[in-house]
Amino acid sequence: MNKIEIKPIKDLKPLAEDLKRIYLDAYQEDYIYAYRDPGRVKRYLKWLIKHADGGFFVAFVDGKPAGFIVIQPDCRFHGEVVPEIHELVVDPAYQGRGLGKLLMQKALVFLKEKGFKKVALWVGEKNEDARCFYEKLGFKVTDRQGAWLRMEKELEAETYDQMSSKESSTRKASTTSTSSMISSGV
């Protein structure tokens, strides 16, 4: 990979088609957890940006969108406000190169700067690669609902530098298949 930039976006329109393509390509083998209809994916992306409150980040490689992460800061779980990562999507052409980890780092720094102490996500129970990826980043399984596992991570105990120094290689991981993508599956 060459030049990587991770930027927050507030307007979906200029990137909607690229992000829809990345989502569909990353989920090409998934018929359980992902939306397959392009129109539904576009509506889902609109829903994500509406609820992200500044937590929608796109990774650009040499100026081209290559992945994204979306956080909803105001999620409630059992009465507690805990931000949730709804999507972590990497274009299959860029998977296995650490881009997912860079996106996750950006999201965690964003949440720490906003004063949050914890973050959560949901992962498909059969997606061992994604669960392993998240566990390496310090997430722990805290709940189960149907085919989904809730994973949480405490933010106060770790800094960006500590996370960067952890295992640097990332494998292709997905909530759905080992060859598609990483996603919280919301």
TrEMBL record:
Signal peptide extent: none
Stored CDD domains: NAT_SF (cd04301)
Alphabetized InterPro entries for the sequence: Acyl_CoA_acyltransferase (IPR016181), Bact_Acetyltransf (IPR050832), GNAT_dom (IPR000182)
Ranges of biased composition (kind: Low complexity): 165-186
Keywords: Acyltransferase, Transferase
Residues in N-acetyltransferase domain copies: 4-156
Domain of life: Bacteria
Segments for region (Disordered): 160-186
SUPFAM superfamilies: Acyl-CoA N-acyltransferases (Nat)
GO-annotated molecular function: acyltransferase activity, transferring groups other than amino-acyl groups
Entry-linked Pfam families: Acetyltransf_1
PANTHER family according to UniProt: AMINOALKYLPHOSPHONATE N-ACETYLTRANSFERASE-RELATED, AMINOALKYLPHOSPHONATE N-ACETYLTRANSFERASE-RELATED-RELATED
Name of the protein described by the UniProt record: GCN5-related N-acetyltransferase
